[in-house]
Amino acid sequence: MSLGKAKAVGAWIFDLDNTLYPASCRLFDQVQVRIRQYIRENLGLSETEALALQKRYFQEHMTTLRGLIVNDGIDPHHFLDFVHRIDLGGLEANPALDAAIAALPGRKVIFTNGSVPHAERVMEKVGIGRHFEGVFDIVASDFVPKPDIGVYRRLCAEYRIDPAASVMIDDMPRNLAPAHELGMTTVLVKPDDGLGDEWAGPAGDSTYIHHVTEDLAAFLGSFGQPAKTGSIP
Predict the structure, then answer these.
(1) What is the distance between the alpha carbons of residues 228 and 73, in angstroms, rounded to a whole number?
(2) 3-state secondary structure of 111
């Protein structure tokens, strides 16, 4: 599915994890395991209790980190450093994605609930870091995560982004709802392994998802063809 031809794209806003690399790499599984380890070691809980708290905080506070900050007063910088110490050995360079992003008109920004150091490590492995003018991470948002709409407004203000001329790409449906509300075109990246994320599904109406793809490089590559360059529906 192409993005069609109607209005110029000023900015492309990309999520990081399970969006700019395949979910089948299972990198985020490693992060989830380390989150539970952090909870066990710092709050003195069992594995079962840590998993239950991880899920509850995610549902109530949009990220487990936010719940730990609000309820347990943890040091978010220490948390981020700990949970992102993962093995990137299964992550490979993606020349097709590199070429597709290079061909896109407009600016490119990373918008992640992770950290800048994690994003930089991932982008280096995938071979795409040169395309992005910045990473708006969870630290930049004062640890208020997507999908809080105020964070989207802060992103747009900091990078002088016009939402109506922007495309947001994410693997979590709920993160696309505020983007749609602000006037962005939204693209959902479905997992390439068929498993998905049990916490990421949309609740109720999902008309805020304008496009869906299982192959981001191919999707962006088709958009980058001369006849379609520079426009979104």
Answers:
(1) 49
(2) strand
| Residues 167, 213, 17, 70, CA torsion sign | positive
The confidence band for 221, taking pLDDT boundaries of 50, 70 and 90, is confident
- Rounded Cα distance between 2 and 19, Å, is 18
In sign, the C-alpha dihedral spanning 194, 220, 218, 100 is negative
What is the distance between the alpha carbons of residues 117 and 97, in angstroms, rounded to a whole number? 21
Residue of 9, 19, 1, 35 whose CA lies nearest to 192: 19
Give tens-digit pLDDT for 51-107: 999 999 999 999 999 999 999 999 999 999 999 999 999 999 999 999 999 999 999
Q: Which residue has the tokens 């806003």?
A: 13
Q: What values do phi and psi take at 14, rounded to 5?
A: -110, 130
Look up the pTM and report it.
Answer: 0.89
Helices (H), the chain: 27-43, 47-61, 64-72, 76-83, 95-103, 116-126, 149-159, 173-182, 216-223
Q: Which domains does the chain have, with CATH numbers?
A: 11-23+92-223 (3.40.50.1000), 27-83 (1.10.150.450)
Residues whose CB is less than 8 angstroms from the CB of residue 180 and which lie 6 or more positions away in sequence, other chains included: 186, 208, 209, 210
